[in-house]
Amino acid sequence: MQNKTTLVTGASDGIGLECCKILAAKGSNLILVSRRQPLLDEIAESLKAQYPGINCTVIAADLAAPQAAQNLFKRVQDQGLEVDFLINNAGLLQNGFFTELDLAAQESMINVNVLALTSLTHLFANNMASRSGGHILNVASLAAWTPIPNQNVYAATKAYVLSFTQALHDELNASNSGVTVTALCPGYTATKMMDNPDQGGKLLVPSGMLQSPREVAEQGIEACLAGRPTIVTGLANRITVAVTRLFSRMALAKIAGRYYRSNMQ
Questions:
Q1: Which residues, 6+ apart, have CB-to-CB distance to 145 below 8 Å?
Q2: What is the pLDDT of residues 130-162, one digit of tens each?
Q3: How many CB atoms are located within 10 Å of the residue 127 CB?
Q4: 38-47, 163-172, 188-197, 247-256: the lowest-pLDDT one
Q5: Handedness of CA 245, 213, 76, 115 (dihedral sign)
Q6: 154 flagged as catalytic
Q7: Number of domains making up the chain
Q8: pLDDT digit string (tens) for 77-120?
């Protein structure tokens, strides 16, 4: 990744921020994207101070807005930047009963988790293919493997990301595009998503079940650079995925529903 350029959405904290730190250490230039310009500016200055050889570009953007992906792509192009590694990490979560959650918030979640991710993948995959190479890491979730009541729209968006990415991996490989796309499926991760009053209820999860954002980011980046179609982080999460194949989807929904309702505040 030396002297390559990586664009990370949701770069201001959690998995996205850890991706930035890891890739900066590898010598990659960075394009940091999130809604919070002042925080991104601080992060960029800190990374440049720690790794003097890299460049950091900050772009504040709300990926829930109409044409957000197209506008972001244009801003990158207007600055003469070529992206070698795209990390679609930005995501929103809503917990609670579907009919009680705010509809606009759920629509924003779909816009960010599905529409913006799909559009950015399309735009940058074409650009990368024109240069015969590149990598795209789409952050899905362990939730992608199971229908989850009280988190149903979120889980559905992540199921889309997983299915879309796995199919696209085969397409890009079959066309000899030189572009690799990978779905990253972390389980419970110690990020603000675990305790954010803006996303509805709070799910109580034992600390021993939480992975660190650093661990997730490291495994995702390694898998994508190695050309793998999918990475489920952590042994316990891989066992969980294997177990889901033993049950019908409705049985899984009932099991997940009971767990989420009993552990949601």
A1: 159, 162, 185, 240, 241, 244
A2: 999 999 999 999 999 999 999 999 999 999 999
A3: 18
A4: 188-197
A5: positive
A6: yes
A7: 1
A8: 999 999 999 999 999 999 899 999 999 999 999 999 999 999 99
CATH number of the domain residue 218 falls in: 3.40.50.720
Which element (helix H / strand E) includes 230? strand 230-232
Burial of residue 237 (number of CB atoms within 10 Å: 0-12, 13-18, 19+): buried
- Provide the token pair at 244: 């889901």
Q: HSE on the CB side for 149, CA within 13 Å?
A: 15
CA-to-CA distance for 63 and 36, rounded, in angstroms?
12
Q: Which of 51, 154, 188, 260 is catalytic?
A: 154
Predicted confidence at residue 199, as pLDDT, reads: 64
Nearest to 115, CA basis, from 152, 88, 87: 88
Tokens at 246, concatenated: 């033993």
Alpha-carbon distance of 96 to 202, in angstroms, equals: 9
The domain of 90 spans 5-263
